[in-house]
Design goal:
- By secondary structure, the chain is an alpha+beta fold.
- 38% of the residues lie in helices and 22% in strands.
- Strands 2, 3, 4, 5, 10, 21 and 22 form a seven-stranded mixed β-sheet that branches. Strands 13-12-11-26-25-24 form a six-stranded antiparallel β-sheet, with helices on both faces.
- Helix 16 runs parallel beside helix 18 and helix 16 packs antiparallel against helix 22.
- It starts with 8 loop residues before the first helix and ends with a helix.
- 43% of the residues are buried.
- InterPro entries: Beta-lactam/transpept (IPR050515), Beta-lactam/transpept-like (IPR012338), PBP_dimer (IPR005311), PBP_dimer_sf (IPR036138), PCN-bd_Tpept (IPR001460).
- Keywords: Cell cycle, Cell division, Cell membrane, Cell shape, Cell wall biogenesis/degradation, Membrane, Peptidoglycan synthesis, Transmembrane, Transmembrane helix.
- It is found in: Cell membrane; Membrane.
Length: 696
């Protein structure tokens, strides 16, 4: 009997160990899988459900009615005409043939207007011919293109399609019926739509209109591609002020920006001024259309989630005062034109502003043309004028700031340097014999040119030597460092009060006047000091006057008063969302004593006892109650006619507690004081509305 083989005991021992390790690995794997499934379902379940729903649904939106724009008293300046519309909603499943079928169905229900028919292009006609005469595009390609052409362009679909359309004979484009034209007009609108971005086909419908009723009755036939929606068109107050703005189609250069924000291509948006600046508030919450999808394609009619009308914008403007300002300007233009020598005048401008807050109460501008008035109020914001002596308050504040202000100075003419044999030239004030010895306050009261020349002479290194009742002027080179420094200091001083810089008004654009650069003649700095070099806008002048009136802080000009949520009551504003706060842009670098001296000078312009005070009529007699402080200006604007000038007047009232700034300019006149009359009439209108004189 042979021996049994000896078994490997180590192998028997290792086998269970390996199985145990294998079972452990499998167990850990299953445990990890179970934990991962639990994490996905419990922790991230909501997220994945949302993703799943997103894959099963797609959303489109339709803009709601815009918010209203009202004045400070709630008077409506811009509102909506409620209307209904037929809209088309493109999706990836809608090719040319399907769109043609929808357009044919829709053409049986609605009639496109002349404007829509006028938008039909030559390309639209060629596309319609191809789609209506061939069952497939392949058939059309085979009919109009050779096999070689199709092979060469098989990877250039756009070029191939363009070639196909070009092969449609012109003779085929003259046999379209009236119904064909209707279908093409609808197809043209279809082609403007982007995927799931509702595009208005026809608007201006109402609930009882046959077209609207017919479309509603047939909605199920369109499988969600055609819907009806509540839309609106904008309506404005009669003689709408320019600053309200307007709505229109999205500008071509901004289309991508608006599409990224969810707008449709044919949405109406604010295109100017307040309508544009506050578009994000006025637009409102769009209506949502939720489509169920099958393989990524919307099917059936959507679930509708109503939107919300846009927020309402309340302006600082008082429409009652605005209307009065417009009438005052028109009356005074006619009055000026009736005077001899004023044939070149045909316009006037005015700005009314709260000096403490920067709130604009009214902006007016009128041009008389071809026997009627044209609104030109925007020029009070964007156009510049030579303002003349109205800038002298800024000159004095700058003189104080740079320690160039004389305590007293005699007003006599200044003899300017001339070449050999040339006639003598002079710089002088309006009173030929001079205005005598003046303080800074009196220099404003009597509007002394020479006193202002002395201020800038001290800054620029110009010597004025008395000689027999006049001054002999000695002028440095305009390239000298001191002169250049003085020009920069003048512009810096003017900028601090608001001249030559933007006011910050909440409009898309505003002018800053014209910067004359560095003078090539050093004597021109004296012209600078009396408002005959750089130019400014009426709005800038209002901000400048406000800076003096309120004690030295430059406030940002603004039209916005507040923003309100939509109200259920059309007669009242809803909940306040935002209230505009006063924004101080800068504080002038002058002491309160210096500012008060300038204020005193402006008060003397109107209330000084001497009738040579340039605004004497505004502060005496029955006008004393208005407590107007002012500065007049007469800027010569034509070297060939020194009697032609711009009349300006900047003012505020009441002097001891400023509530209102009034600035006006009457360009191109030779005689009269329409600037005084315009300002006085505005104060009278303001007082009738707010009764400020009786409260003082």
């Amino acid at each position: 009997m042979g021996k049994e083989p000896v078994k490997n005991k180590a192998a028997k021992t290792n086998l269970p160990l390996r199985l145990n390790i294998l079972f452990l690995v499998v167990f850990l794997a299953f445990a990890g899988l179970i934990m991962r499934l639990g994490y996905v379902q419990i922790v991230n379940g909501a997220h994945y459900k949302k993703v799943m729903r997103a894959n099963n649904y797609q959303t489109a939106s339709i803009d709601s009615a815009r918010g209203k724009i009202v004045d400070v008293n709630g008077t409506t300046l811009a509102d909506n005409n409620a209307e209904l519309a037929v809209v088309y909603i493109r999706n990836a499943s809608l090719d040319g043939a399907k769109n043609l079928k929808i357009a044919r169905q829709l053409a049986d229900l609605i009639t496109m207007d002349k404007q829509s028919l006028g938008q039909i292009s030559n390309r639209d006609e060629r596309e319609y011919y191809v789609l209506s005469h061939f069952k497939t595009l392949t058939a059309a390609y085979n009919n109009f293109l050779t096999k070689k052409e199709q092979t060469n362009l098989q990877n250039k679909q756009a070029a191939e399609y363009k070639l196909l359309l070009s092969r449609v004979p012109d003779s085929a484009l003259h046999a379209f019926s009236r119904n064909d034209k209707q279908i093409m007009a609808i197809m043209h609108q279809f082609n403007q739509a982007s995927n799931l971005n509702p595009h208005i086909i026809k608007r201006g419908l109402h609930v009882n209109d046959k077209e609207y009723v017919d479309v509603v009755d047939h909605l199920n036939e369109f499988n969600g591609a055609i819907q009806t929606a509540d839309v609106s068109s904008r309506k404005y107050i009669k003689n709408k002020p320019f600053y309200v703005g307007k709505v229109g189609e999205i500008p071509a250069d901004e289309i991508n920006n608006y599409l990224a924000k969810g707008y449709s291509r044919n949405a109406l948006v604010g295109t100017s001024n307040v309508e544009d600046v506050y578009e994000s508030y006025l637009r409102g919450v769009p209506m949502k259309l939720l489509y169920q999808t099958k393989k990524g394609i919307p099917v059936g009619n959507p679930r509708v989630k109503d939107g919300q009308r846009g927020d309402d914008i309340q302006l600082t403007i008082d429409e009652r005062l605005q209307q009065q300002v417009d009438k005052i300007l028109e009356a005074n233009i006619l009055s000026a034109r009736s005077m001899a020598g004023n044939g070149q005048n045909n316009s006037a401008y005015a700005v009314v502003m709260n000096p403490k807050t920067g709130a604009i109460l009214a902006i007016g501008g009128k041009i008389y043309q071809n026997g009627k008035f044209i609104d030109a109020a925007s020029e009070a914001v964007n156009s510049q004028f030579a303002m003349g002596s109205a800038v002298k308050g800024a000159t004095e504040l700058t003189g104080y700031r740079y320690h160039a202000m004389p305590a007293q100075f005699r007003d006599m003419r200044i003899k300017l340097p001339t070449g050999s044999g040339q006639k003598a030239k002079y710089f002088q004030s309006w009173e030929v014999g001079g205005l005598g010895s003046l303080t800074p306050e009196q220099a404003l009261q009597f509007s002394s040119n020479v006193f202002m020349a002395k201020i800038v002479s001290n800054m620029a290194g110009i010597t004025l030597t008395p000689a027999g009742g006049e001054y002999i002027g000695s002028f440095p080179s305009p390239n000298s460092p001191r002169f250049i420094k003085a020009i920069h200091e003048m512009r810096n001083g003017y900028a601090q009060v608001g001249l030559g810089v933007k006011t910050g008004i909440d409009l898309p654009s505003e002018g800053t006047g014209y910067n004359g650069g560095m003078p090539t003649n050093s004597g021109l700095i004296q012209q600078f000091a009396i408002g005959q070099f750089d130019t400014y806008t009426p709005l800038e002048m209002a901000q400048y006057m406000s800076t003096i009136a309120n004690g030295g802080y430059r406030v940002q000009a603004h039209l916005l008063q507040s923003i309100h949520a939509p109200s259920n009551n059309p007669e009242t504003l809803g909940r306040t969302i935002y209230t505009q706060k006063t924004h101080i842009l800068n504080t002038v670098e002058n002491t309160q004593q210096e500012i008060k001296r300038v204020q005193k000078g402006l008060y003397l312009v109107t209330h000084g006892s001497n009738r040579l005070s340039t605004g004497y009529d505004l502060g005496h007699g029955s006008n004393v109650k208005y407590k107007i402080a002012a500065k007049t200006g007469t800027a010569q604007i034509d070297p060939n006619n020194l009697n032609l000038y711009n009349e300006t007047l900047i003012s505020y009232a009441p002097y001891d507690n400023p509530q209102i700034v009034v600035v006006d300019i009457v360009p191109r006149v030779e005689t009269g004081h329409q600037n005084h009359q315009i300002a006085l009439s505005i104060y009278q209108a303001y007082d009738k509305l707010y009764h400020y004189t009786s409260k003082n």
